[in-house]
Specification:
110 residues, mainly alpha, 2 strands, 45% helix
């Protein structure tokens, strides 16, 4: 699978759920490549914006889309990476604020 195929597959699955890709197409393309690199490296598509432990069970919360995405998009209009965003975020109808890390510190240093 290449980055374009991944993009199309995820778009088909996520848009009906209300999650859209950022209009920053260069960033999205980079993140697609990083997800594929992580899949090759670890065997699963761990969030490219976070440090993976390499253990799928320990990383389960940050396998894309991470478990934090729903709250991030609801509160800020974007996930931590700015990969998944709301329609309003893309349209510039809400401020594009920094999305703080929700992952508990103890999970980051396993």
């Amino acid at each position: 699978m290449n980055a374009e195929q991944l993009y199309e597959m995820l778009k088909k699955v996520q848009e009906p759920k209300g999650y859209y890709f950022s209009e920053d197409t260069e960033r999205v393309a980079d993140l697609m490549q990083a997800l594929l690199a992580n899949k090759e490296r670890y065997g699963y598509m761990v969030c490219p914006c976070r440090l993976s432990s390499g253990n799928k069970e320990k990383d389960r919360d940050i396998i894309c889309p991470c478990v934090y995405r729903t709250e991030d998009v609801a509160e800020f209009g974007s996930c931590y990476c700015n990969l998944y965003v709301s329609r309003e975020w893309n349209a510039g109808k809400i401020p594009r604020e920094y999305v703080p890390e929700r992952r508990p510190v103890e999970k980051m240093f396993l």
